[in-house]
Amino acid sequence: MKKILITGGAGFIGSHVVREFVNKYPDYTIINLDALTYAGNLENLRDIEDKPNYIFIKADITDAKQIRSIFQEYQPDGVIHLAAESHVDRSITDPTAFVMTNVIGTVNLLNAAKEIWSDATGSAQGFAGKRFHHVSTDEVYGTLGETGLFTETTSYDPHSPYSASKASSDHFVRAYYDTYGLPVVITNCSNNYGPNHFPEKLIPLCIHNILNNKPLPIYGNGKYTRDWLYVIDHARAIDLVFHKGKDGEAYNVGGFNEWQNIDLVKELCKQMDEKLDRPAGTAAKLITFVKDRPGHDLRYAIDATKINQELGYEPSVTFEEGLSITIDWYLTNQEWLDNVTSGDYQQYYEKQYQG
Length: 355
Ligand code: NAD
Ligand code: DAU
Known about the structure:
Order of helices and strands: EHEEHEHHEHEEHEEHEEHEHHHH
Number of helices: 12
CATH superfamily of the domain at 3-197 and 228-257 and 299-318: NAD(P)-binding Rossmann-like Domain
Structural class: alpha/beta
Low-confidence stretches: none
Strand content: 15-25%
Bound molecules: nicotinamide-adenine-dinucleotide, 2'deoxy-thymidine-5'-diphospho-alpha-D-glucose
């Protein structure tokens, strides 16, 4: 019986990873550790919360003492670490929160894993069969020009406080491998989309605003490019790397699926008009160009050759299929949207887009 501790399991990607592991591995115990910040929502996991192999613990990874005692009590064999502050715009407003969770929180988890996995003499013998999987982002590589792709050997060059904090955490994870021999793997994934995506990020924000006839804010000229992957395909990649990746290695994850923001939003508008039975062009009238994001990275694009060739990974859905499933999910889960867009979030959103 393996015990896997998943951090950030109540968030967008984490909830899909938790579901994948709980359903696919009934002989594992899956421990979901999450602080339930504004981005964490146990509603995301209602369908699996009563499964016998699932445990939820509310805890904050910035609290080293609390984390150490959870590791002592549950003795996990593996860690899949997703807990993070994840929104670039929020990192511009409050960088320190990103340092605390993404850097200090990661180091706290590394220390706890190192401590409980070392054997009685404190040596690395106890690391056999253990794994610390750090979930990271393509944003650590900085920005691309019009051409080229990020590979696993591209130099780190983060520009936002968010990507700087993720880059820093990646460096700590590697340092624990090099220095202590902690068995780590890292995945660097491109932009995810899908059900349960918090509506401060581009795709769910636009779906929410189309439903409510609100402007669709496009930063700058809209020609910024992102490489989009369906969230369940990210969860599948994490499963693959967690079980079959090599210690000390990083794997880029992506779907070779680049879109300029403006084209993506127009495609979304088209599909939303069709699904809502509104005249073609209705949603696109809401497109509004707004002030650019400071330090906005021009283009991200992942070269996913390594994970494909070494581990046989391929995405399971096309972008058209994934986007259609995603829109349908939001249309049938408007209560989820209403719940997460009330209260504090509404105030943040209004402040963000004032003027
Ligand atoms: P999210 O913001 O939706 O969820 C983050 C989760 O972490 C939430 O459940 C939140 O409650 C929890 N959390 C935050 N601070 C915490 C703390 N101090 N202690 C414990 N839990 C805490 O994020 P996401 O989009 O699901 O991203 C998950 C991970 O994947 C992050 O590490 C992110 O950097 C990485 N990633 C995201 C994307 C993307 O497109 N969203 C792409 C590549 C990598
Ligand atoms: O690349 C992976 C990263 O993708 C993850 O590491 C981050 O956690 C995740 O948030 C995401 O970062 P982005 O900044 O790329 O995602 P976001 O949805 O915020 O923005 C996508 C693009 O759309 C980006 O070019 C900024 C632009 N944008 C975003 C918002 C919210 C707009 O034009 N208008 C908007 O209102």
